[in-house]
Amino acid sequence: MKYKTFVTTLAISMLMTTTAQAQQAPQLRADNIDDVLKAMTLEEKAKLLVGGANNFFGAGAVVGGEADLVAGAAGTTPRIERLGIPATVLTDGPAGVRIDPTRKNDTQTYYATAFPIGTCLASTWNTELVGRIGEAIGNETKEYRCDVILGPGMNLHRNPLCGRNFEYYSEDPLLTGKIAAAYINGVQSQGAGVSAKHFAVNSQETDRTSVDERVSQRAARELYLRGFEIAVRESNPWTIMASYNKVNGEFSMGNHDLLTKILRDDWGYKGIVMTDWIGIRSGLPTIREVQAGNDLMEPGQPAQVNEIIDGVKSGKLDIKDVDRNVRRLLEYIVKTPSFNKYPYTNKPDLKAHAAITRQSACEGIVLLKNNGVLPFNTEGSHTPVGGDLQSPTIKTVALFGENSYDFLSGGTGSGCVHPPYVVDMLEGLKNAGIKSSETLTDIYRKYIAYARAKFQAERHPAKWFQTEMMGQQKYPEIGLSPIAVGKEVADADAAIITIGRQAGEGIDRDIATEFNLLDEECALIIDVCNAFHQADKPVVVIINSGSVIETASWSSYPDAILCAWQPGMEGGNSIADLLTGKVNPSGKLTMTWPVAATDHASTKNFPGSIDDYTFKQMVGSNRPIPGHTYTNHEEDIYVGYRFFDTFGRPVAYPFGYGLSYTTFGYSKPAVKLSGDVVTVSITVKNTGNVAGKEVAQVYVTAPDGQIEKPAKELKAFAKTRELQPGESETLTMTIPVRLLASFDEAGSQWISEAGTYTVHIGSNIADIRATAPFKLSKAYTEKTSDALRPQQKLNLLKRK
Length: 800
Ligand code: BGC
Hints:
single chain, 800 residues, alpha/beta, six-stranded mixed beta sheet, 21 helices, 20% strand, binds beta-D-glucopyranose
């Protein structure tokens, strides 16, 4: 054969082989996952298990694969062209879609709605409303060409000092699970996915990537895992994110007990597990993660692909484990908008979503104090609801506090969102027809511009989490003198002071400067109250914080206190709706507000255990950070109200607390056990003068049995529709008997002991309006796996 003919024949035959291979290679469909799995090479399987790009640090800072698909998204799953497997895009979360708002060489903008933070959403106690927020977030996720939103954040508020509490829901697992399930069902109804995070026991930021959370099996099951269990059973999240920390000696990401025995065997979870964003972990081989049931390493590194391939070749990793995880990933991929070629627009309906943000924030904001000055009478026609001050006509206010003019819509870190705007207090009040002092506006605006410039100039380059891409910053208060404050009294009908706190990923809060008020903040409250009260003019404090702060030392000064949390980009409008009575507050606290941060039983071991305490100087930080290798959960099941209520300790505001402009009456309840379900019915009546909504909370006291129990635990709740004065609604709630159970470690089982239970129905845990007993004549038990045994003896807090 002549050389030329040989080359041509070879080329033709190579082309035919490749075409044949390509023709033979099955293209992924929902109904041919087995065929695709069979056709995959080991390299392709390994590649799929190791996630793609990470554009986490903003546009341009690409660390691999497919970052440019959606600038600013957190990661992707790898594309395998040969088999028709598309890349899918994972974006933070949870308070909205976190992508870069602008792109290089592109005039279009990609702003996303900043929805209320998790704590504010949970404080609505309104699962239907949270479901609608979920739908809006799901819609923005897919319209921005993403497949999964990395949320909801579901870790328990073990202690008020956790820097990420704002992303999370509550100190109570039932409330956490129900709110999360509503969010997840909402997102997933849009054909986009979620990643419920951080699984599990990740209730602190200090040393989060290395700390060993040592917790009893009981507290793990009843508290830290219960919310996830409810969410898995009631909403089937597409993905779950394994946390950075260790649980009882093993990293969550490689924790077979957690990811397989509990999540899949006990709860029947069918979706995928991905890692939190870390890549290769020192001390945790990737093959152990695969074996544990971790399906996706994010953001992946090429060395991990090789490790999986070598593991299989050397026999250290069973190909069956790889195939099982790959199958789960393929099952996930076929559900995604990317796979289904969703015609995304990059233009979600931000206006419609702003409206639902405004409404949901109104329901999540909690009225902590009101001596009758609220709602403000803006028309001169309003009848005060009660209290010792007549509700005055308010046309002009003196607006104090840096955050009145630089309102914090959300927290910092991966949980921040880049919204098109944030409505601050000034604008919100203006929109409601209330004027603000021009002098103060001028002072504060100039100050904020100065503080911002100074902060950026002095920011250590290593403090990447303090750039604007990572969220709004909180600047110190000005320190206005009593003279300056006094000058405002004459022209204003009332004063409003906003006290702001910022917190976020990577760092927990400290007591002295973040939980407590600073001297200049206390001075501002006292000076403003003194000056305005002398002229019989009211003072309202707005708390603009994602987490609990100290209130007991100053709450007697102002006439009203509204905890606005970080309520999203419509914050100022939502607050104005409440101040003016356009909306009646109905938010309730989802965590206890202690008198002092040290009152929580968990503070002793937060953010680590005292016998394991060193100080580390963090890069770019001006204060040393405490470092810990482990955290002993010695408070055990006595987290939040389970501690305060059981041990009779005083609090600033109890769990479930929140005032309204109206009052509610509760009827006698009807409580009935039928089969494995307790049904509780109660009629709630609006006994006041204005329309409003009430949250009825059902707590249960278990009979004294073999297992020690908290005094009361939340077992159900329901929110009324808006009731007109005199109107009633009958709320019917159900409690599955399995949810009454305590975890019996010795028998690895749930037990609802036989005996008489007391149902307490109230407006908060300390304001019980009705009680009724029911009898469980036979104990209910449910076997589980024996998982997560602590490796050290824990000195657990006991009731008796
Ligand atoms: C956070 C996650 C987040 C991920 C991706 C991690 O540092 O802990 O909550 O989803 O980054 O941005």
